[in-house]
C-alpha cells in the first residue's frame, strides 16, 4: 500500500506499507470463543453477555467429570422420579379394577332386588364375558407382585385367580348350573372381595390409612371366603351327582 505525506518543507514524501499477515488477527477467526468474546465484549448488549456466560458455564459443567456424590444424587433423583411414576400407574390400575368390579357387583345386586328370582335365568348369559375379563385382569396384579412392584405372595394369588377362572369356565360349559341361585351368590362373593381389596391397595399405595377400609380388608374375608369355598364345593358335588346319574342312566338304558 502506497501513502503520500506532505513534509514541513513542502516536499511530498511517498511511503510504502506492507501488511504482516503473520501478526494479523481477525476477530472472526479467533482460535477460541473466549478470545472472540474478549474482543467483542464492548460491542455486545448485557443480554448477549449473560447468554454467553451461561453457555460457557454449561460447557464447563459438561466437560467437568461428576463426583461420586453428584452421581449418587442423580441416581436418587432418577429413582424418585420412577417411584412417582410407579405410584401413579399402580393407583390408576387399582382404581380402574375397582370401578370394573364395583360396576359388576352393582349390576348383580340391583337386578336381583328389582327383578327377583327371574334374574337367575339371564344374569349369566348377559354378564359372562365381562366376568371373564374382570377376573383375567386380576392376573396383572399377580404380575405386579412377581416383578416386585407390590408386596404380597404371588403364588397364593395365582392359585386363587386361576381357581376362580377355572370355575367360571366350568360354569360357562354347564348350562344346567348357570341359572342356579348359588351361581349368582358365588359371583357376588368373588366380586365383593375385590371391591374391598382394590380401594385398600389404592390407599396403601398413596400411604393413606382409612380405618374402615383396613378393618374390612382384614375381616370381610372371614365371611366371604368360606361362602365362596362352600359354594364351590356345592357346585363340584352337584356336578359329580349329575355325571354319576348320567352314567347310571346310560347303563340301564333299553335303547
Please provide the count of β strands. Answer: 2
Q: How many domain units?
A: 2
Mean pLDDT: 79
What's the SSE pattern? Answer: EEHHHHHHHHH
Unreliable stretches covering 5 or more consecutive residues: 247-255
Distance between the termini: 130 Å
Can you describe this structure?
- This protein is mainly alpha-helical and 255 residues long.
- The protein folds into two domains: 2-63, no CATH class; 90-241.
- It has nine helices and two strands, in the order ββααααααααα.
- The chain has a two-stranded antiparallel sheet with strand order 1-2.
- The longest helix has 48 residues, at 68-115.
- The radius of gyration is 40 Å and the shape is elongated.
- It holds the Pfam family PTPLA.
Chain-wise SSE layout:
Blueprint: E1 2-6, E2 12-16, H1 33-39, H2 46-63, H3 68-115, H4 123-147, H5 154-172, H6 175-178, H7 181-205, H8 211-219, H9 221-251
Antiparallel strand pairs: 1-2
Helix pairs in contact: 3-4, 3-7, 4-5, 7-8, 7-9
